[in-house]
User: Which sequence fits this backbone?
């Protein structure tokens, strides 16, 4: 969708850039690769599981950086500019995660078929008013900070300076949260019920229902995107 | 047919996009907006928005992690 005028502008800027040469980052990439391989070998000798986590972490980081996957933007953009392309990506990720977690959790249910929440892998925590309060607080913070936790860390790695301020707040917040967790646990969290829907309707049904629900959401998001497109043009 | 520069250095999402929307409203058709940014998400965000609005748009890396986004107002 580039026009002649933009092409001309680009060519002119390209000539200007060539005068003050660009630095080459390949050297830094080489050093970082060596450092990560050394860390991998070190972990492999001392703690096998950590070495797997290290590789997964690196791969997630690369994917996050290359794809510009941003949880903050996915929920902010539909309201702000009527674009749901990232939200749709998140919904697809949820569908894949639902299937993956379904398989892992199905595997851990013993032959009697009774679901014991404490033994299931995954973060199954009590829900209550604290969930809503936390979600609102995190949502406000995420939009003001310009990124969620993973996005912030990824952009610091890229060298985006502003987000270091966010990181400081991030560390203060998590430390305070961990320090005060016991208080909140006693006050609200312990009293709230743990709801795990597969316990009531069976795991396969729950997985299928969730996928249907997410697919419907996907089509709503797609429709919303197209509707906004037509209105603005 | 003017070129207007918009400085969005060190601004995080979604400020560059909001600034661009505001600036484009005041511009005439045919004007080109040059948006300078160092926020890598903006090149996705702003370019996608401009395409959806039907403007001509392209971007270029002008330095280490610094981009210029060119938007030609079409309507």
Assistant:
């Amino acid at each position: 969708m580039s026009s002649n005028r933009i092409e001309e502008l680009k060519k002119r800027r390209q000539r200007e850039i060539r005068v003050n040469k660009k630095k080459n980052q390949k050297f830094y990439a080489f050093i970082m690769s060596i450092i990560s391989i050394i860390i991998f070998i070190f972990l492999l000798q001392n703690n096998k599981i950590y070495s797997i986590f290290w590789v997964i972490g690196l791969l997630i980081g690369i994917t996050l950086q290359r794809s510009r996957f941003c949880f903050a933007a996915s929920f902010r953009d539909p309201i702000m500019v009527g674009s749901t392309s990232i939200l749709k990506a998140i919904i697809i990720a949820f569908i894949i995660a639902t299937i993956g977690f379904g398989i892992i959790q199905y595997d851990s249910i013993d032959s009697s078929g009774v679901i014991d929440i404490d033994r299931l892998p995954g973060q199954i925590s009590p829900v209550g008013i604290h969930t809503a309060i936390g979600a609102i607080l995190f949502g406000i913070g995420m939009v003001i900070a310009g990124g969620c936790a993973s996005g912030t860390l990824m952009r610091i790695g890229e060298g985006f300076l502003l987000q270091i301020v966010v990181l400081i707040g991030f560390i203060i917040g998590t430390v305070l949260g961990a320090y005060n967790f016991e208080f909140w646990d006693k006050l609200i969290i312990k009293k709230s019920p743990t709801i795990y829907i597969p316990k009531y309707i069976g795991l396969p049904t729950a997985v299928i229902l969730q996928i249907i629900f997410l697919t419907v959401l996907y089509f709503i998001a797609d429709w919303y995107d197209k509707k906004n497109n037509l209105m603005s043009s | 047919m003017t070129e207007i520069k918009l400085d969005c250095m060190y601004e995080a999402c979604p400020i560059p996009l909001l600034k661009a929307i505001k600036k484009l409203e005041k511009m005439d058709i045919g004007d080109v907006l040059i948006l300078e940014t160092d926020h890598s998400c903006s090149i996705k965000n702003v370019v996608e928005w401009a395409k959806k609005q039907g403007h001509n748009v392209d971007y270029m890396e002008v330095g280490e992690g610094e981009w210029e986004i060119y938007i030609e107002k079409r309507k």
The CA atoms of residues 129 and 188 of chain A lie 8 Å apart. The longest helix of chain A spans residues 203-232. Chain A touches chain B at residues 1-3, 5-7, 9-10, 13-14, 17, 22-23, 25, 68, 70, 72-73, 76-77, 80-81, 83, 85, 145-147, 151, 155, 158-163, 228-229, 232-233 (CB under 8 Å). Chain A has a mean pLDDT of 86.
